[in-house]
Amino acid sequence: MTIVKDIDARGMHHCETTALGVLLRHEGLDLSEPMLFGLGSGLSFIYWDGKGMPFPFLGGRVKPFELTRNLAARLGLTLTVEETTSPRKAWENVAAAIDSGRPVGLQLDCYHLDYFRTKVHFGGHVVAMYGYDEHDVHLVDTDQQGGAVRTSRAGLATARAERGPMTARNRSFTISLPAHPVSWQDRIVPAIKDCAEAFLAAPIANLGHRGIEKAGKQVPRWLLRAAEPRQDLPQAALLMEKGGTGGALFRALYRDFLDECTRLIDDGNLRAGHRLYAEAAVLWTHVSTLIAKAGESGDAGCLEQAGVILHDLSRIERDAMQVLRRL
């Protein structure tokens, strides 16, 4: 058995920030999960209802791995990424990192992981690997998936090689700090402003505050859109609250990030943005509750209420990002 020493195998709410936390703590940088999410400019929104999709998807963050790239660039980290179509090379890439005493991040499809409780395909899942033996690998996943867990090497190989939406070709990555690390506190304002700019200037109507407005128009029709409303709507609500989002479709994480920032930076716009995202987080949880209730009861009125709240959320988040852009 080969195990990386001194691993802090702490599971958190969200998969990518959990993996980043493991890798960075091993390098000597220990940041809270909200700070990792915020410094990576992770907040976003997408209303996705593509051809062939059984049901629409509400996403609350930037696309998989973009958060990691953002964080590495902002903090001057060395991010080494490997991708390959060869199963043999894919294993060699991760084993080499572990053998050298360094944990490695993996992007994969969680469907094939032995310990995963809910079997759904999601190709943007990220875990940290810190050990292996002949049969199994040692991973760190989110707290709700068990934190420090094990899965078979065969299952891991299948998960890493899966093709489909949001998947990567056996992607693995390591992170190292520069000899003279930058002050992460000095990178807070640029991270917030970049996130706000991207949110406000989203190029299509499915993204950002315009995407939330679109969701407000589409969600009231979900009982008709769903093939199995009693299953599809509660599942959508569950993903919004419990699917590694930290609650309220990542708005709770961003609220907590802004709260942490207000303790470091004295700025009225920052405090205003925090207040607005605290309001938004409560409303997003209300939306998910109404969506679940509509699926369970068949009451279209719940979806009408959710649509009204989503219209309000579009305005609230637009206003929040406008004040945060002025930092």
From TrEMBL:
<dbReference type="InterPro" id="IPR032369">
    <property type="entry name" value="DUF4872"/>
</dbReference>
<feature type="domain" description="DUF4872">
    <location>
        <begin position="155"/>
        <end position="324"/>
    </location>
</feature>
<dbReference type="Pfam" id="PF14399">
    <property type="entry name" value="BtrH_N"/>
</dbReference>
<protein>
    <submittedName>
        <fullName>Lantibiotic ABC transporter</fullName>
    </submittedName>
</protein>
<dbReference type="Pfam" id="PF16169">
    <property type="entry name" value="DUF4872"/>
</dbReference>
<dbReference type="InterPro" id="IPR026935">
    <property type="entry name" value="BtrH_N"/>
</dbReference>
<feature type="domain" description="Butirosin biosynthesis protein H N-terminal">
    <location>
        <begin position="14"/>
        <end position="142"/>
    </location>
</feature>
